[in-house]
Amino acid sequence: MRGRLGRLAGYAALAAGLFAATTAQGQVQAAQQAAAPAPGLRHVIVISFDNTHLSDIEQMPALDGYLKAYGTIFPRDHTAIDAFTHLDFTTELTGLFPSQTGILAQSQYIGGHEMSFSYWRDPAGDGTLLHLSPPPWKVFTAHGLAVGAVGWPDMGMEGYRDVAHYLGTNLPHRASAYYGVAVHWPGGKPPLFGTPNIPFVYDAKLLNGKGTVGDFPGFGAEVPGWALSATLAMQTHGVPVTYTYITSVHDLPGAGQLTATDPRLKANIAAYNRAFARFFQAMKAHGLTPANTLLVVTSDEGDHYLPGGEISTSLPAWFKRVGFPDTAATRIGATAGALIYEPGPVAADYPRLDGVPGWRYIDQGPALKAVHQYVDKDPGRTPTFILYAEPTIWYDNGSSTALSQGGGYYWNHGMVSSAVNTVFMGLAGPGVRRGGFDHAWIDSTDLMPTVQYLALGSVQSGLDGNVLFTALSRSARSRLAAGVPRLAALARAWRKINAPVGPFGIDALRISTQAALDMNTPLGPALNGALARLVAQRNRLAATIASMLWQGEAGHALARVTPVIRQATSLLRATEALATQAMIR
Questions:
Q1: What is the pLDDT of residue 497?
Q2: Which of 115, 204, 471, 574 stands the most exposed, by the fewest C-beta atoms within 10 Å?
Q3: How far are the Cα atoms of 326, 395, 398, 404 from residue 315, in angstroms, in the given order?
């Protein structure tokens, strides 16, 4: 363990100077893109809370004040669906929707095998890669920048199987000590997994001065006092890009979820605030300031508060009760957005779902493509349909049709619901406008392209998000030949037709639901057919707009912006009319 220090010191020296030192390596590409990293930018810190609202952040004056003083907060950021930890963290990290990453939900089936969290390069149950998109750290390591992960899903070891496969079984620490934390180096150097293998993290002092970082505490105990200490250790030892997961403020390690009226919740929020105050003080002491450090803070999804607890019931039991097919080969990823995999055709049975309680939308047929849940690269992992629950409901795989409330779960998520799908994103640092709030409607996929634009001077083509143009400072905006107003208008049109919970996506779910319930009448197939045509039209238009946005991000002037926006508006009107005329609920 200690023998790695010499090599780590060498890596730190290689990365010294961070973005300033690597500019030469990326000069050719930057020149081709007519762009450059934001002046002075040397560190990138991305922090995402689990199930935390902007209203919670506003009770942390240290963090809230930092973001407002040195950057911009977007209170209308939106998730993909299912709105759950695994999918949402993947979306934020890649800038891609589930249709491209292959990560559809917290619990999904691939080749008949149930899959969830796993290291990025791991195979799925059928031998294909779990993640269908490239490792997200590669875009930075290609520029000579090391990337660190502090508990961020799938960037490090996720369980004993991972540890045994990548590190072996004869280890000086328990297997769980190696979970969650990793450093990915440039130049083809092998990654380091787990704090015991990263001495400058393992031995780093905690920000409160009481002990050291030590072993990984567990995914449910990544409170900011520990997580921010590990993050600072990386940032001050040659790892200029870090991604940090922080446990929900509504969860208290060892005590479970807290109700909104539990006095321990206020105490927990206060503890989070103290940790951030110490973090910013330590950053300043180490020379990490708003002049050289890009800080991005967001949440994977929100959650819906239920004072009496969520109401759970069994989908298999209800399927049996209403006569919906449920065979030995049926697979159900049970959550508030349940993925159902059926071995045979079941469209004629969709009307039976009307007898199942607690759902809001039936996502089937062309709607799966409308909301980016159809995986072209591996159609077998696409579910037959998805049943999205009401905010109060949780579907399980038990044996009872009883509606049981309680169980200690007061914060429900996974469904299509404003409280869950609406999150926040705050950015502060070089290239970011100090503007307080920006109420533009944005998408979680916008995080990665914005970070790339500011940190690398260019944006990968093919991403599902785009740069948050209105958050850019005057100097960062000057690189955009197309101008921020035109690009922002184009981005708004793109999100409306392409974001999963944008108006096109929600109308598609409404149409899909009515089509399913009327599948045995002429109306059902007709609605699906009409929706399929609208989705095909959307896909063509979205591809056009995405290409235009990427050209704009690369510094090129744009033509035909207004006609394209008009086409998007026309498409939205046609989709809304179809939903309304069919009297979709």
A1: 98
A2: 574
A3: 10, 6, 8, 13
And the tokens for 295? 């800080």
Under 8 Å between Cβ of 7 and 202? no
Residue 177 belongs to some domain of the structure: yes
- C-alpha to C-alpha distances, 33 to 36, 94, 144, 188, 481, nearest whole angstrom: 8, 21, 18, 25, 12
CA 471 from centroid of its chain's CA atoms: 20
Residues 6+ apart with CB under 8 A from 383: 104, 108, 109, 333, 339, 340, 341, 368, 373
89: confidence class by pLDDT, cuts 50, 70, 90 = very high
The pLDDT > 90 percentage for the chain reads 89
Q: What is the reported pLDDT for 583?
A: 64
Three-state SS at 385 = strand
Return the HEC string of 293-309: EEEEEEECCCCEECCCC
35 CB-near residues (< 8 Å, 6+ apart): 453, 457, 458, 479, 553, 554, 555
Rg (CA), the chain: 24
Cβ-contact 356, 319 below 8 angstroms: yes
Q: What is the mean pLDDT of the chain?
A: 92
Q: Residue 4: what pLDDT? A: 25
Alpha helices in 96-253 (DSSP H): 98-101, 138-141, 160-167, 199-202, 224-235
- Taking CA atoms, 167 is separated from 124, 265, 421, in Å, by 19, 38, 38
d(CA 290, CA 287): 10
How is 264-275 classified by DSSP, letter by letter? HHHHHHHHHHHH
Task: Write the pLDDT tens digit of every residue in 397-434.
Answer: 999 999 999 889 999 999 999 999 999 999 999 999 99
Number of domains in the chain: 3
Asked if the model's pLDDT at residue 10 lies above 60, the reply is no
- What does the alpha-carbon distance between residue 505 and residue 496 come to, in Å, rounded to a whole number? 8
pLDDT of residue 9: 34
Burial class (CB within 10 angstroms; exposed 0-12, middle 13-18, buried 19+) of 560: exposed
Taking a C-beta distance cutoff of 8 angstroms, is the pair 239, 147 a contact?
Answer: yes
Domain enclosing residue 428, as ranges: 2-26+41-81+144-305+418-455
Q: Is there a contact between 78 and 439 (Cβ–Cβ < 8 Å)?
A: no
CATH number of the domain that 77 lies in? 3.40.720
263 shares its domain with 151: yes
List all residues 6 or more positions away from 202 whose beta carbon is below 8 Å from its beta carbon. 1, 195, 196, 212, 213, 214, 215
Same domain membership, residue 176 and residue 65: yes
Tokens at 317, concatenated: 């039991």
